[in-house]
Structures are given as C-alpha cells and as structure tokens.
Design goal:
Elements (H helix, E strand, L loop, with lengths): L2 E8 L21 H16 L8 E4 L3 H20 L7 E3 L43 H18 L4 E6 L1 H13 L16 E7 L5 E7 L7
Parallel strand pairs: 1-4, 2-3, 2-4
Antiparallel strand pairs: 1-5, 5-6
Helix pairs in contact: 1-2, 3-4
Length: about 220
C-alpha cells in the first residue's frame, strides 16, 4: 500500500499596519515576524527526516503564501543539495487561494468599513455559512479537487501546499465531519502551522490528519 501526504501550511504573519481585510488583494507581504514564522516552519520541515523528502511545493498565488513557500523551498533545497538532488521550484494554483470576501480592503472594526455601518450588517447575518463571501462548500470543493489531483500525481510522496486559514480549515472540517460549515472563531489553523493529511493512493481514503504549530513561539 502506498500513501501520499499533503502538508497544508498557512502563511506567516502579514505586514498590515492599517488593519485592512486584505483577502485576495496584491502587495500584502510577510512582516518581519511573519518571515521568522515561515523560516521556523521551513526549518521544522527540512530538519525532520519524515518530511525533508518532500517532492513538490505548491502555493496560492498571493504574495504572503509565495513568500512563505519561498522560505520552505530554501530550507528543503539546502537539504536536497547535500543529498545531491536537484532543487524544487514553486508552482502556484488558484484553487488554494484565500476565500472570497465582500469586505476586502475595509477596516472591519473602524470607520465606514465597520460591520454595523452602511448596511454591512446584512453581509454577516449568517456566520456559519458565511453570508459575506465564498461559501465553505465551494472552498472545500476546490481544495479537495486540488488535493485529489495532486495525490494522483504524487503517489507515495509528500508535498507542501501553502494556503490560507479558511481554505485549510474548511477542507479539514469537511474531511473530518463530512461538511465544511463551521464556527469561524473555533478554527485551529495558526499562522505558519502545518495540517498534514495522508491519503491511501489505492482507495483515496483519508488515513490520518495531524496538526503542528512550529512557529508558536516566534515573536
């Protein structure tokens, strides 16, 4: 029996002094702390014999995920060079992008973008769906389509996918419960954390889901 493991990594902390909901907007990069978070997770993956044989690295096309993936690639490629292996390169995929959100570019708690102003409250009538943007069903479906494709392409291997909180948790919740809807304040997807899903290559069955937070102590 062979199995494929996908390590879903959330990006590190973003530089966002204006406290905007950046969603899919360009030019939101990792902060200094975020870069250290990415490096901590990269070092965790590269120094662990169970994960430093990762065969491919994918990410969302957004700046913060590509920068986090860059740190992971640098660490993994250092190990690969020591073993005489060719370096890995990053591949981006829109299916693992951040969830769509009608509040993009707004300061949720302040000014005209606040939830209670200008009719914005109508977008948060259902925190379980959510009513303010892309549905959890759609998020989980695109994540699952990506994952199943990559499991078929990488039998018996491990890969990294750098994505975002809502896509990672919605997909995990779907795999664990059969539905992706969840209470958003109970997500367990810390910045630069790793949610690892292992699939049986023959049946496609999910064999295990594990979670680690290598950057928990980064400040």
């Amino acid at each position: 029996m062979t199995a494929t493991t996908i390590h879903f990594v959330r990006h590190g902390k973003v530089y966002n002094p204006d406290h905007l909901l950046y969603e899919r907007l360009p030019d939101f990069h990792l902060s200094d702390v975020g870069r250290r978070m990415a490096q901590a997770t990269a070092q965790y993956l590269a120094s662990n014999p169970q994960t430093n044989t990762i065969a491919a690295v994918y990410s969302s096309p957004l700046d913060r995920t590509r920068e986090t993936a860059g740190a992971i690639l640098e660490a993994l490629n250092t190990v690969r060079a020591e073993r005489g292996e060719s370096p890995l390169e990053l591949t981006t995929d829109d299916r693992v992008i951040e969830a769509g959100n009608e509040f993009r570019g707004k300061r949720i708690g302040h000014g005209e973008g606040a939830l209670w102003k200008n009719g914005n409250w109508k977008l948060v009538l259902n925190l379980y769906k959510p009513s303010w943007g892309e549905s959890y069903q759609h998020i989980a479906a695109r994540m699952d389509a990506f994952a199943r494709e990559k499991v078929a392409q990488h039998p018996g291997q491990q890969i990294v996918v750098v994505s975002h909180e809502s896509p990672i948790w919605s997909y995990r919740h779907y795999l664990e419960t059969g539905h992706p809807e969840h209470w958003m304040f109970l997500r367990k997807t810390a910045l630069a954390s790793v949610t690892s899903v292992t699939y049986d290559n023959e049946t496609g069955r999910v064999m295990s889901i594990t979670y680690v937070d290598p950057a928990a102590n980064v400040k």
